[in-house]
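Hello,

Following up on my earlier ticket. Below are the two sequence lines again, exactly as submitted.
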Amino acid sequence: MKKKMNIALVGLGTIGSYLLKYLIQNKNQLIKKNMAIPNVLKVCARNRNKKRGIKIQKKLWAKDYKEIIKNTNIDLVVELIGGSEGVAKKLVFESLRNGKHVVTANKALIAKYGDQLSEIAEKKGVNLEYEAAVCGGLPIVRSIKEGLIANKIQKIYGIMNGTSNYILSSMQKEKMHFKDSLINAKKLGYAENNPKSDLNGEDVASKLKILTSLCFNSFINKNIHVEGISNIDKEDIINADQLGYNIKLLGISDIFKERICQRVHPALIKKGSYLSNINGVLNAVVIEAKPVGQSVIQGEGAGPEATTSALVSDISSILRGNIKYPFSISKKERKKFKTSDINLRSYSAYIRLEVKDISGVLTNVTKVFSKNKVSIKRIIQSPYNSRKNSRIIIITHNSKDILLSKTINTLARKKFVIKKPKFIRIEYI
Amino acid sequence: MKKKMNIALVGLGTIGSYLLKYLIQNKNQLIKKNMAIPNVLKVCARNRNKKRGIKIQKKLWAKDYKEIIKNTNIDLVVELIGGSEGVAKKLVFESLRNGKHVVTANKALIAKYGDQLSEIAEKKGVNLEYEAAVCGGLPIVRSIKEGLIANKIQKIYGIMNGTSNYILSSMQKEKMHFKDSLINAKKLGYAENNPKSDLNGEDVASKLKILTSLCFNSFINKNIHVEGISNIDKEDIINADQLGYNIKLLGISDIFKERICQRVHPALIKKGSYLSNINGVLNAVVIEAKPVGQSVIQGEGAGPEATTSALVSDISSILRGNIKYPFSISKKERKKFKTSDINLRSYSAYIRLEVKDISGVLTNVTKVFSKNKVSIKRIIQSPYNSRKNSRIIIITHNSKDILLSKTINTLARKKFVIKKPKFIRIEYI
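Thanks for your patience. The regenerated structure is below:
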């Protein structure tokens, strides 16, 4: 007889409802592929009466999440509440402590409490799976943990947020302002009503922290440089375009001399490079590793369909009894790496200044650069048609990030500089 | 105490030697990640004295492959001999029959005998894993079987042969002839001494047959249209380039109205499309599926490093006891689909004719097209500088493949057509 696994779904928003429908409609197929029965025993949500496009039998409803934690018949809890605190946190911690497997799409929770949670899972011999928390439908977690298990990973980077990538792509394609592009993204369902964490880089930061610890067998490292895209102007997109670049929000993590450097920021990347062609809501992640070389995984990073694909892959893995350490390797083997600050890295950079159109400005600007030992590769000065000021665009040679910052800060204080200078790093990836 | 798994490696060429070295050097890491010990108990190769850059203890050598089959201490056999018949076939069949797990990089064997082999594996409850047989380092088999397990796949396509892609890319980049590009590829180690199966499409055909059966839960289907790249001239590459296309060797498989259509052929694809940017020895596979949407996996398709990455992922999966059906699903659930012939598909096509430079030729050519109901989208006639003939390049509208073939065959018989007409399909992917 086939093994039966009792599942509880907690959180029935768009994703939870889609998953529930999927599990009911595809039960037979999952049994055939996994040699075990996924049986949805309980569901739980704040509002029972919300329209979900699916009939939920009365007996399926649990009173609250505490009932789920206590119910000894439940083998596997799927947490789809979200947020790193409150009910989601309690549910996942307590479920693991009670020896239940957990599948979650909650990146904030894993990025914050992943180390403690995986310790409990390891102690209890249960799975804690979170494929859906990182880049939706891309099988990236599974590929790092299983498909690329043979490899020593040196670097992971990519486009990990569909909302910001949609906004930047459409700013580029339609020569739109940030605000208009955001309004469009909301209309089309590509941005949430409150898209703050998508735009300020925090969403990518959570994903990157998780990927970093997976790739380098390290504990989750909270030292990360994060910038978002709200400051990117249409003007910068157009300038970059003319100079042969696209602007993308990147998450990058690498290890060098036993130090990890994690950073999230917009960057100019050469047109024609792989990531420059990733447009719209797509996600794409590149892994550099030995012996395999460079591997790329690209796909839909969000939405109920892609997320369900990831959740079901985790549920299936547990159905097949594929017990693994949540972070590839036992707690006692995970390492605590030192971090390397982005300040110590070197970049070429794109800098845009709005300056008063008075004589000697260019000389004064270039002086600031040479004082800070930042050498200029390219400089373009042109008047703003609409106002009396001038625009100066500078592409620098490779310079220490800290010197670039100093240069910008010095410039910002000059009287002839009218607005806060714009500074975007260039990544040759 | 940790479970120990005794492994035998059969075939110690470039890949086998690299894998052996890897398994010895990374044993501890694999134990940590898989909670079981991969112990190389025996190796076997035709020539013991070949230089392999690794010291092999005397006690490791098996007399011959039969000793491996009979040795009841061996749990897992890694077959790296190659070829669909002879020793490789006997070794894999007999090892499975004797209840041993098998890992292989042998695409010809799996494409030919995969159905029988998986039946034996299923009966014996052992694994038959072949990630390394399909696109080297890309975790494509594992992604279909596990990461994308939730999905109903409709189409799979991509660039699946590094050698031919290297040749086509360098023909394009360096404006080289096929022969010169092939010589280069051999020098650089990107083409074997006998690259026949890489160039005639057979290598891609084997991979595609395996992927098709995985994607559609079908038995291996031998009905496949196969063309290689040996007929692609520098001239066609240049013409395509000027018209806004690159030429790539594609493997494509889809299912429509319960019929599978598998085909391997060179195709013009729009510049700027994802696959058009995959150059050199890279492989890239695109999967269209529900609910996840489009997924892409890209990486190194060949070489000892990438192949070892794939082999070790299979070995690790077995170490963790992740028993699965070799083709995702039990034999009794796999389907036998009808096939749809490429003849019934519709394509735009690129056609190049070399014709005598006499009056009325163009009219005669266009007549052949209209008689066969193939309508012309674009036609360019220009003289060959070096000889007295003319070149006619035609891009057709979408037409049934069978009508395109008829058109070509009729043209080939005309006296004013000097050489066999060149015909390459256009794929809008």
